[in-house]
Amino acid sequence: MNTRTYPEGVLILDTHHMGRPHVVATYVLLGDEPALVDPGPAGTLPNVEAALAQHDMSLADIRHIVVTHIHLDHAGASGLILERNPNIRIHVHERGAPHLIDPSRLIKSAGQLWGDQLETLWGRTVPAPAAAIETLVGGERLRLGGRMLCAYDAPGHARHHLVWYDEQSGAAFVGDNTGVRLPLERFTRPATPPPEVDIEAWLSTLDMIAALNPQWIMLTHFGAYNDVTFHLADVRERLLRWAELVRQGMASGASEAAQIAALEAQAHKESAHLSAEDQAALTQQSGEVELSWRGLARYWAKRA
């Protein structure tokens, strides 16, 4: 299990999703009220517990779960964690909270993307108790003992997305709003699956993150990066490129299969420098390129 401390007081745990490193991370905010940021999918919870044990911690020590958004790869383990430690408080966007309390619609939506691989990929998602959940809309300050987190409404990847800024470490926990990235690579990839992609909102969210002037960008997929200016510029450029390629493909009248193939060719061109293993990890981080095409196509169809 790979673990490493990045910003002071923050621990990164590699959940080894589907047995592969550098796909899904969860973060531990250390201190007198320890918190998990994006605890990950239900299926990787045993790996999170094992990683905590390496640091003489367990779920019994955790006091808070801080959620960027409620997609299964980020927050699917929340209900199971509360079964093990009912004293934990969950902090989540008010639009996402109902889907933690009753995940049936979330699971159904994910099933449309993942089919019969859903539980294999993400594990068994169970409800989180409503009494444990604190909802936010952005603009709030959350005190975790001696640590202060600031919540910011951050649509783009999803309407229920928050960015969390940790004043102590200068780290911004951005979920999927700044794309995905492999450690040691100066290269990002957008993750734009349906149903809530909104490019205008996304660009505003990137502006908001830049205005925070964070010292670190903390990605669930995957890791902590302090080349913040480069990272934000790279993901903005690639997001706009992918969106425009999909728009042009739809306007051309080409078949859906041809449009998907064009975006896949662009993605392959951009990542051609990566090894086969890193290519596989990148795809696992962001989902198949077809899913990103479908999210962008849905966005442009709604605009039309």
From TrEMBL:
In alphabetical order, the GO MF annotations are: hydrolase activity
Q: Which UniProt keywords apply?
A: Hydrolase
Q: Which Gene3D superfamilies does the UniProt record give?
A: Ribonuclease Z/Hydroxyacylglutathione hydrolase-like
List each coiled-coil range.
none
Which SMART domains does the record associate with it? Lactamase_B
Q: Its domain of life?
A: Bacteria
Q: Where's the Metallo-beta-lactamase domain? A: 23-221
Q: PANTHER family of this UniProt entry?
A: METALLO BETA-LACTAMASE SUPERFAMILY LIPOPROTEIN, METALLO-BETA-LACTAMASE DOMAIN-CONTAINING
What protein name applies here? MBL fold metallo-hydrolase
